[in-house]
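Notes from hallway chat w/ T.B., transcribed later so I don't forget. T.B. wanted the structure written out for a chain they're using in a teaching module, and asked if we could keep both sequence and structure tokens in one place. Agreed to drop them here.
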Amino acid sequence: MNTDEALRAVMPDYTDAFTAGAWIVHNAIPRTREQMQTSAATDFNDPRRRACFGVTADGEIALVGSLEVITTETLARAAAAAGLVEAVLVDSGFSTSIVFANKIIVTGHTAPNLPSRPVPHGLVLVGTPETPTDEETLK
């Protein structure tokens, strides 16, 4: 799915697309390491802070990230348990951040105050976000 022709074959009317990492949740079931490996970078399961983009059964979009170092398999299980029915890994972590209320919530680096390297694209969600419940995040 990395050519215009391939995308148009399955989505002839698409206008925008982005490349994601491994597909980690499908039909509300966390995918296995072997299933994820078919569409992932070789380091997709290395332990690090991880982030994913997903959707719930109600069609709500979710950006999910780990506050601690975990594997992608662990993120997949957590994302499915949190109600995501489909989810993809966003990069492999090091160049991915989730920012909420002008604060870096998730970053691929081990220090929360160290932003990821600049990248030329982003996903921006507009609306009324659910406030994080983690006390450290709210400080």
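Follow-up for T.B.: The chain has four helices and seven strands. Might be a good example for the class.
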